[in-house]
Amino acid sequence: MIRVAKFGGSSVASAGQFKKVKNIVELDDTRKFVVVSAVGKANKDDNKVTDLLYLCYAHTKYNINFDNIFKMIENKFIAIAEELDLKFDIKSELAKLKSEISKGIDEEYLVSRGEYLTGLLMAEYLGYHFVDAKDLIFYNYQGDVDFEKTKETFDELITKYDRLLIPGFYGSRPNGEIKIMTRGGGDVSGAIVANIAEANVYENWTDVSGILMADPRIIEKPKEIEVISYAELRELSYMGASVLHEEAIFPVRDKDIPIQIRNTNDPKAEGTIISDNRHLGLKQIVTGIAGKKDFSIITIKKRHMANEVGLIGKALKIFEEFNVSIEHIPSGIDSFSVVVETANVRPFIHELVAKIKNVIGADEVNVSHEISLIATVGERMKNTKGLSGRLFKALGEAGVNIALISQTNDEINIIVGVHNDDYEKTIKAIYNEFK
User: What is the mean pLDDT of residues 275-298?
Assistant: First the structure.
């Protein structure tokens, strides 16, 4: 049995949190490989080390003194090292980093130092062998993880060391330079390690006891999801649920490794299992509800459109020319709509509309802003008769006007578009109907 345990920023935010991590790791001898994020917020008024490092870089870029910001970083790391009585010379390492920043430094290298330094401290505290992620997680020239090279290196390491500590969030390019991942990429690092370690479980330790059925800022004490499939999680993540980085799914899904979301502050809680091997006895029809605000619906109308071949393709080509990603394309007989994030079209919306009219000879092009998309997700919805009726009845009774409905043929989710003002009301109505 092998468990890969990844601890997020809140789990390593202080010496007290380091102690919790050690207790968790020592509770189960199968937690042989640990991945850590950079030191996070110790409280709501605190700052993440990664954010502070980005600020340092921004200051140096414009020749602004960064001493005060770097002092905050120093204080965090030194406080942890001193309280835990660690022998690693963190002060010298920080002084070296500050000197490198003053002389000019690559942004990705600088930002990766949060995980790097956190990893060094945690490795000593746990008694694990530290492996710099740049020497383990390799990328190819296309920017994809080179799993073959990464696996070979890992297999060689475990012939010498049976317990490894790896910083998350970064790896290296073929030329040896640091490559960081998108924010939250430590989750992806953990998934990569779980893949190459052939782990039985990938544990993702954070500050919540699993994934919630809806946003707790909108729903008071929403239900926790016991088991969720990879596909369901992907849908919820894309629509705004943010417990796990959506790209973390792929490395473990390929090898059917379940992900378990756990709470560092409540290690006895079972959390949420993410796996396609779901328990057949689950009664929950709707797994989760998530949404995002600020979309625009661009509706294109043209008489006899249904008889014209390639018209939609011409319109989509225009969006491609403007480098705009498309969310949904609901259509009618003589009209179709294109749903996009408002921020992606706001700077040139008039030019975009004019070009659509000109290229495809549209009779009318209308634009609606301030639209929210809300997804109701669940693989069991497909075999449940009357579910759509229940959903729309609940929204009708709540006085919600629906601007858009979208559902794929796999019926894993139903997406409704509503005005931003009805965003919270919509989520509450759906949750109360299916909780």
Answer: 83
